[in-house]
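Q: Joint fold for the lines below.
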Amino acid sequence: MDNKILEEIIRLNKDKKPFCTVSKINDDNVEIIILDKKELTDIQKLAQDALLKDQLIITNYKNEELIINPFNPPLNIIIVGAVHISQYLSKIAKLLDFDVTIIDPREAFASKERFPDDKVINSWPEDCFENLNIDNRTAIVTLTHEPSLDDPAITYALNSSCFYIGALGSKKTHNNRIERLKNSGFSEDKIKRVNGPIGLPINASKPNEIAISIMSEIIASLRHHNYLDLDMRDDWKLR
Amino acid sequence: MSNIEVLSKANDWINAGHKVALATVLKTWGSAPRRAGSQLAIRDDGHMIGSVSGGCVEGDVVANALELFDNPKVKIIDYGITNDTAWEVGLACGGDIRIRLEILRSNG
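A: Joint structure:
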């Protein structure tokens, strides 16, 4: 690989473009593959596969062993509620290479003093979610336990391809939430996508501990594509 | 530490006139702390950024890189419990990893 390719890699990532580097196993020439057209070539299909798996693949292509290394744009986390937990969750998410967006219409919460380094959107979820780029590399977390703020965000989340939805609140709060979602037409199966009470049960009690428990659950969802079906999750939740 | 941060730093080092090697995890078997695709950049004075394991083999990868600077080529290195070098380098995790090492070229 030469530094021209390096600079191209850095530029594409800055533009938040997904791409792969491709090289022969014993050759240091590198090509960059971008999925720019609807009709994908064979090599672009392999690149797409690597990007979806988010993992390097080695494949035999035209009798050559090829290394395809995917570079996905950063993961995103959208946090509804500029609350105390969000201050820690944002920091932890950034450590894990997530791009963070915090949404709260209440200016006293979403202040620059509380979130000096964050992208904070000062509006209601229903007014801003449409303009957010929500994809299968996005996690959506609601932390206000105020239905007027959380529910519209959860509704958008359930209609999106985001990989994780979590909602703060006790079991009772969550059961009430499930009832409201049912009444607004969501099936039970679909509502199961909402992780509530949010986070892995590590007996977290302080805001920073709860942030760790939430982020741990997000990682579990990211790395186990069938996380929602895992028995482990039910066991944990019952404790 | 994402690969992009590793490659950005590698690029900075090249622009500052250093020679830089790049190690990439090609494959892992069994328990290994870093996924395939993970990268480690090594500067010609031994500084490094990123990782290819939990610290088990980085030292040996750096030593290999320093040798490779004088004779740039792609080198594939296997580490694992089935490999003789494992007893010296030691993969505490009990897994096997294959690493590809190359020298980054500077084209001005």
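Q: Anything notable?
A: The mean pLDDT of chain B is 87. The helical segments of chain B are 3-15, 58-68, 85-89.
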